[in-house]
Design goal:
Shape of chain A: globular
Structural class of chain B: mainly alpha
CATH class of chain A: Alpha Beta
Helix content of chain A: 25-40%
Oligomer: heterodimer
CATH class of chain B: Mainly Alpha
Strand order of the largest sheet of chain A: 6-7-8-3-9-10
CATH topology of chain B: ABC transporter involved in vitamin B12 uptake, BtuC
CATH superfamily of chain A: P-loop containing nucleotide triphosphate hydrolases
Order of helices and strands of chain B: HHHHHHHHHHHHHH
Largest sheet of chain B: none
Order of helices and strands of chain A: EEEHEEHEHHHEHEHEEHHEE
Low-confidence stretches of chain A: none
Number of helices of chain B: 14
Strand content of chain B: under 5%
Structural class of chain A: alpha/beta
Mean pLDDT of chain A: 90
Number of strands of chain A: 12
Distance between the termini of chain A: 43 Å
Largest interface: A-B, 35 and 28 residues
CATH topology of chain A: Rossmann fold
Number of domains of chain A: 1
Radius of gyration of chain A: 19 Å
Distance between the termini of chain B: 15 Å
Number of domains of chain B: 1
CATH architecture of chain B: Orthogonal Bundle
Number of helices of chain A: 9
Helix content of chain B: over 70%
Shape of chain B: globular
Chain lengths: 259, 329
Amino acid sequence: MSAIELQANNITWQVDNKVIVDQISLSLEKGETLGIVGPNGSGKTSLLKCLYHEYSLSAGEVNLAGKPLNHFNRKEIAKIIAVVSQHHDPVFSLTVFDIVQMGLIPHKSFFEQDCSEDWQLIDMALSKVDLIDQKHQIFSTLSGGEQQRCLIARAIVQRPKIMIMDEPTNHLDVYYQHQILTLVKKLKLSLIITIHDLNLAAQYCDRLLLLSAGKVIALDTPKQVLNSTLLKQVFKLNCQIDENPFTAKPRVTFAGGHT
Amino acid sequence: MKTKLAFFPALIILTLLVLMSLILSMGFGTAELGYQAVWQCLTDECQRNIYQTILIDIRLPRVLMGFLAGFALAAAGALMQNVTRNPLADPYLFGIVAGAGLGATVSQFLPEPLQAFGLPLSAFIGALFAVAIVVMVLMHSNWRRIEHLLLAGVAVSFLLSALTNFILYFGDAFETNRVIFWLMGSLARSDYQSLMWTLPVVTIGCFIALLYSRQLDALLLSDESAKTLGINVNQLRLIILVVCAAMTAVIVSYCGGISFVGLMIPHIVRPFFGLTNAKLLVASGLLGGCFLVWVDVVSRTILTGQEIPLGVITSVIGSVFFLFLMRKM
C-alpha cells in the first residue's frame, strides 16, 4: 500500500444551514487518479473547493501529508496542490507565457527575480503540453483545449504533488477530451478530477467517487461503482453496463427518456 | 500580448524622454529666459538673481511636482485597473476627488491663521474620508464582487459632491471660486514643501506595489486562481487600494482634480510594455509624468497672462483619446 497524499475525514460544508458537502470521507493515494462523478448540483465542485481550502469546513478535517490542512498557510498549500479550475476569459490580453509564469508564484519571495532555471521550467512545461509555439499568443484567442493545456502547464510549473481539476473536459470535443486526460495522466501526479462523462471517468480513473446531494453513494473502482442499480438511483435513468472493446473498462449506456 | 518593444531598451528611451521633458519644460513660461540660461542655472550658477528665483524657486518645483503628480496618478491608475480587472478603473474611483473637494470646501471655515496650510490638509482628510466609506462598504459586503468597489465609489462620489455643492451654493462667492478653480487642477501652488510631503508617499506607495508585483499579476486571471496560487487575495487587494488611495489623495490635495491621467496612460503603455504589474507600473508612471509636465507647459503658455486649469486640458485630451480607443476596440 502506497502513501496517502490527502485524506478527508467526515468533511461537511454548509451555507445558510443548507448542507452542500455532507460528511464526506476520502483518501488519495500517491500517484492515483480519483474521479468524482455525479449529477449537476451534487456538490462536486464544492467538494473540490473544500479539499483545496477555498472553502472553510463546517465540520471534519482535511489532512495533507498527515497534517491538518489549516496548519498550512496558503502558500504552503499552493506548493503541494495545483488547481486547474473552470475559468473565464481574462479582461486584459494575457499571453500564454504570462499565465504559465504565474505557476512560479508560490516558490518566490518578495523581489525574487526569475532565473534561467525558471525560464527552462516554463519552456519545459510548455513543450509538455505542446504549446511552445504559442508561447506569446494571447490566452483568450486560444481554443478551449489549448486554454486547458495552458492552465495545465501553469500547474506543472507550480511543481505540486497533487493536481485537482474541475471538469477539465468540459466543452471539449472527443479528441481533446482524451488528449487532456492522457496528458495529465502522464505527469504521474496524484490526481482528483471531477468529470461528467462516466465512460471517460471509467477509462482514466483508478477509483471513482459517486456523489449525490452532497453525500457519497459509492467510492470504489470503476467496475464496482458503475453498476446499473446505483446509477439508476443517482441519475434517474435506466442504463446498461458492458465492456469497452478497446480498454476492457466498464462502458455505460443510458436509455434516455424512452424507458 | 507580444509587446512591440523589449522592456529594457524601451525603459531607456522612456527615461531619456523624462529627462528631456524635465529640462526642456523649464524653458517655458511667462518670462522667456532661453535654454542657455536654464542650462547654466542647472549645471553651474545663474547669470542673474532673478533667474535664480524664476527657475530654481518657481519653475523647478513646479516641473518636478508635475512629473510626480503624473507619475503617481498613472501608476495608481495602472494598479487600480489591474487589481479590479476593470479597464475603466482609475484612481478617482473611490470618490477621492469628491472627498477632497468637500474637504477643501469645509476648509474655508477654518480660522484665518490655518488657511494657508489648511487647504491641502483638509482636502487630504476629505479624500481619506471618501476612501474610508468605500472600504467600509466593501468590508461589509465581504468583498464578494469587485464590481461593488466601482459602484460604491460612484455612489460616494455623488454623495460627497452633493454636500460640496450645497455648501458652495450657500457660501461666499469668493470662497466658491477658490474651491472650484482648485478642483480644476493646477500646479501653481507647487513648492518644495509640497514636494516634501508628496515624494515620500509616492515613493513608499510604488515600493509596496513593486514588492507585491508578482502576486498582483496572479489577480489578472481571476481571484480564485490567485487563491490557488497561495495568495491572500482580499488582503492584497486592500493593501493596494490603500496604497493607490494614499498616493492619489496626497496628489489631489496639492494639485486638485487632474482627471483622465490615471485612466488613459496605462492604456497607452500596455501595447508597448505588456500588462504585468511591475513593467506597467514603472512605464505608466514615467509616461504619465512626462505627459503632465507637457500639459502644464501648455497650460501656462498657450494664453498670455493667464493659466488654463490642468484638469481642463487633461480631460479634453483624455476624452477624445477614449472615443478614439473605443473606435479601435
